[in-house]
Design a protein that fits this description.
By secondary structure, the protein is of the alpha/beta class. It has nine helices and 15 strands.
């Protein structure tokens, strides 16, 4: 844990496994050599947050603080933060490292001031609000980690002549929506699934065709469409937990190459083995040094540039849960109960 100053700030801690979040004042930490201290303005909620609260997932000890998605203002920087990192006073979006630090309370999002490795912080353009900025990091990092897991090279760029398709299952979710934007920019013909009332929205993100995932014939319809369009689909991104239908589609239209399926949903204790299909759980580089370099490229170059040009936009719609940090349990319970096409955000 980092050293602390004498000041304190408001935080929502997990006192013990399975316990509701508790609002406390805790010491404000001082950033380590390559860290930034961020004053948080908005926090976006993700399923992993209530998994950490309810089940102790990825938590090493208590008290712990969950949370990954934040936006705010840099208020302090470590002694060795690279010059390319956002400066003190900059409005930023950032990926808090609650997962990588196993719940270390200095690094979880659900508090007013949080430490973040400088490599996981990106400046926000003036046209993007704190609420919009808060929904970016998990979605961007998870989707980009999917391509890393699938072995895609940085800067992959296809043309229409390549006839390469990609399937994104769960296109109206935050991670699915950003995945569609990324895949479309790489030149893939993107097929996506979503509820019918989200179809037009998903198309605006860059999907060529959108299918109703509840349709009992959805597999047959996607296979038929791919064959009619003359494309092979040998890359899939599961943002919603639909392993079997995706496998059925890939087996039918993957062509001669080995297909890659990157799942953002935990695969369980036994990963299925399917001939000709490589199934991976989405993950960023596991080596600390490699992950730091990858994150610098992702946040300081790729995301920064694409936010400035408008090539990547925050998605989906935002629903603010009133009450700030005091409503953290309410927000996580609502997310756990199921939401569709919206991202729950706390303003702190």
């Amino acid at each position: 844990m980092a050293s602390t100053t004498m000041s304190q700030h408001l935080a929502a801690i997990i006192p013990e496994k399975g316990s509701p979040l508790k609002i406390v004042h805790r010491p404000t930490p001082t950033p380590g050599p390559t860290e930034l201290l961020i004053e948080v303005h908005s926090i976006a909620c993700n399923p992993i947050d209530y998994y950490m609260r309810d089940h102790g997932f990825a938590v090493a000890s208590y008290p712990a603080i969950p949370g990954s998605d934040i936006s705010g203002i840099v208020i302090a920087a470590g002694s060795s933060v690279p010059a390319a990192a956002p400066k003190v006073g900059t409005r930023v979006t950032a990926f808090a490292h609650a997962f990588f630090t196993h719940g270390d309370p200095d690094y979880g999002a659900f508090q007013k001031k949080v430490l973040v490795p400088a490599s996981s912080v990106c400046p926000l353009p003036d046209g993007i609000s704190f609420n919009e900025g808060s929904i970016l990091p998990m979605a961007v990092q998870t989707s980009m980690a999917a391509w890393y897991s699938a072995g895609l090279a940085r800067g992959t760029k296809l043309t229409s002549a390549d006839k390469k398709g990609m399937l994104v299952w769960g296109g109206s979710s935050s991670i699915g929506g950003v995945g569609i934007q990324q895949a479309s920019r790489m030149g893939y013909v993107v097929y996506a699934t979503a509820s019918p009332h989200h179809h037009e929205y998903v198309k605006k993100l860059g999907a060529s065709k959108v299918f109703d995932y509840k349709d009992i014939n959805v597999v047959e319809k996607i296979v038929k469409s791919a064959k009619e369009d003359g494309i092979t689909i040998n890359l899939a991104y599961d943002a919603a937990g639909a392993l079997q239908p995706i496998l059925d589609i890939l087996k039918a239209v993957k062509g001669d190459d080995v297909a890659k399926l990157a799942s953002a949903v935990l695969l369980g204790s036994v990963t299925p083995t399917v001939e000709g299909i490589d199934i991976k759980f989405v993950s960023a580089p596991s080596d600390d040094a490699e992950r730091d370099e990858w994150s610098q490229w992702l946040y300081w170059t790729w995301l920064k540039e694409n936010l400035q040009t408008g090539e990547i936009v925050p998605s989906p719609s935002i629903k603010v849960v009133d009450g700030g940090l005091e409503s953290a349990n309410k927000a996580l319970d609502e997310l756990k109960g199921g939401v569709s096409g919206v991202k729950l955000v706390l303003e702190v």
